[in-house]
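Researcher: I'm preparing a figure for a lab meeting and need a structural model of a single chain. I don't have an experimental structure, so a prediction will have to do for now. The sequence is pasted below. Please return the structure as tokens so I can convert it later.
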Amino acid sequence: MGFHEKSAWACLLGIVLVFVPYFAVVLRFPMAFAGLFVLVVIIQVVFMVAFHVGNAIMSPSIRKTGDTPPKDELDQLIELRAAKISGVILGIVVISWCMIAMYGVPALGVHEIVLANANDGNDLPPSKFAIPIFDVLLAVHVLFAGFVIANLVYYGTIVVSYRRLANG
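Model: Understood. Here is the structure written out token by token.
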């Protein structure tokens, strides 16, 4: 297994091990994101630095030259293909999220106005249009989850491509 494949494996495993528990918590409790996000980023950085330092120490080519092995045409082609696939997925996620935000969020705010009018009996002016923070944070976390999924697809495609080459 080459240096670039090991790096892709580490990134893939790091994202899965760190962000799956993060999303398991914040998609149920969106308000818990602030401190948890900082902790998750620190854990991710420490994991990636530790892996890459260990990988650099264990790789004989890096010990001899002091530099990472250069990417050949095959490595570049694999990364280009992975970037293309993950870019399409990221585009779909962002456009879908924008469409939901354009059409779903105003409906949610209008629903809140209608509920307030039904409960109070007084007409609520449009300036009181409000969306609950819980729903806003949930939507932001869903968008962020789309970015993480696009990264998982990127590194997963790299790993699968290298494994296909290794298995013939």
